[in-house]
Amino acid sequence: MDFSLLLTALFAFLVVNGMLLSASVLVYAERRVSGFIQNRPGPNRVGPAGLLQPFADVLKFVLKEDVRPAASNGFLHAMAPVLTVVIAMTTASLIPFAEGVVVADINVGVLMLLALTSVTVYGITLAGWSSNSKFSLLGGLRSAAQMISYELSMGLAVISVVLIAGTLSLPGIVENQSSGWAILGWNVFRNPVGALIFIVTAFAETNRAPFDLPEAEQELVGGFHTEYSGMKFGMFFLAEYVNWFIASFMIVTLFFGGYLIPFQPLLLQAFPALDGSILLGFLQFGALMLKVAFFAFLFIWVRWTFPRFKYNQLMQLGWKQLLPIALANTLLIAVGVALFRTFL
Q1: What pLDDT was estimated at residue 140?
Q2: With a cut of 50, which residues of the chain have pLDDT below it?
Q3: FRET pair for 236, CA 20 to 30 Å: which of 116, 217, 275, 306?
Q4: Dihedral angle of Cα 91, 95, 101, 106, to the nearest 10 degrees
Q5: d(Cα 27, Cα 38) in Å, to the nearest integer?
Q6: What is the pLDDT of residue 182?
């Protein structure tokens, strides 16, 4: 028996279940933080301090009737939520959780990441079209236009990171950030404009406020998932929270040192026995999760702080502001890297 294949399958199983559990944790965290921001209790009925509320929501989704519009396309209507969840879960396989701990360590991990995030729009667009509802169709079209608009700037931000690291491998990009002293080697310090652009576009790609135009309850009832109920709606809900979690992972991996512990070179100098040990792996995983938790909180904070953009503002920001800045930043990074490698 190939034990390496078995170990990879086991790790993939743990990652998928971890993503499912993370969605429940994020639902609870968002409700708690939003309650705090709005000066109200938040969930406090189901379980101690409301901790079981997400599981009660899952039970509600399971027991609800699956209602489908009579004039909808049944197959595509059912496939759309499955597609969004599968893509979200697949993206998790690219994340390096610690040194040497990743489900799919491929040399073109960045390209795979961009490809998977691009395909997500198909699930949302199909959901909007197959429902045969004007609200759903408008939500699907908005999502397609929004994702296409902001993927360009996001891709350029990622290219600027690839130029600095000299590799398309996500673990390679993380290790490249260990070259500087303490945390100064992280890409957020070497490429701050790219980091800012990636964070903004991550909000748009995950349809989070103030970029939640595809849902826009006040305008489109519920947007692309207006005609969904039961577990189909629950799958869209799950995909949104997993994508939000994955976006936090990607921000940390590309710009904030990934699993690298702050001052890790100094730590390894002081305790050389840690190098390559299991304890170091746990410390790296803990550091990664703390960074991800901060950006997950940032997603919640922004949602309950800033109002939603108008659609023309959304398009103008993507095409007239972010895209030229991202293009200029990528060109400057390319010139800087070429000069640095020429003279040093």
Answers
A1: 80
A2: 1
A3: 306
A4: 70
A5: 16
A6: 66
Contact 85, 119 (CB under 8 A): no
Give the chain's length: 344
Answer yes or no: are the C-beta atoms of 133 and 67 closer than 8 Å: no
Per-residue tokens: 258: 């990934």
Q: Which of 40, 65, 43, 41 lies closest to 56 in space, CA to CA?
A: 43
* Amino acid 124: pLDDT: 85
User: Is residue 214 within 8 Å of residue 207, measured between CB atoms?
Assistant: yes
Q: Rounded to an integer, what distance in angstroms lies between the CA atom of residue 239 and that of residue 21?
A: 12
Q: Are the CB atoms for 203 and 302 separated by under 8 Å?
A: yes
Cα dist. 188→142, 198, 214 in Å?
Answer: 31, 11, 30
φ/ψ of 246, rounded to 5, equals -65, -40
Sign of CA dihedral 330, 336, 342, 344: negative
Nearest to 150 by CA among 225, 247, 217: 247
d(CA 200, CA 196): 6
Which residues neighbour 155 within 8 Å (Cβ) at sequence distance 6 or greater? 114
Contact 99, 259 (CB under 8 A): yes
- Confidence (pLDDT) at 154: 93
Amino acid at 168: L
Other C-beta atoms closer than 10 Å to the C-beta of 254 total 28
Would you say 137 and 221 are in contact if contact means Cβ atoms under 8 Å apart? no
How far CA 55 is from CA of 47, 59, 156, 229, 255, in Å, comes to 10, 6, 39, 17, 34
* Cβ contact 211:145 at 8 Å: no
Which of 265, 258, 245, 266 has its CA nearest to residue 291? 258
Q: Which residues pair with 101 in a beta bridge?
A: 98
Burial class (CB in 10 A: 0-12, 13-18, 19+), 194: buried
The pLDDT of residue 180: 64
Look at residues 219, 164, 207 and name the one whose alpha carbon lies nearest to residue 187: 164
Give the Cα separation of 88 and 279 in Å (integer): 30
- In this structure, what are the phi and psi dihedrals at residue 97, rounded to the nearest 5 degrees? -85, -25
pLDDT at 343: 61
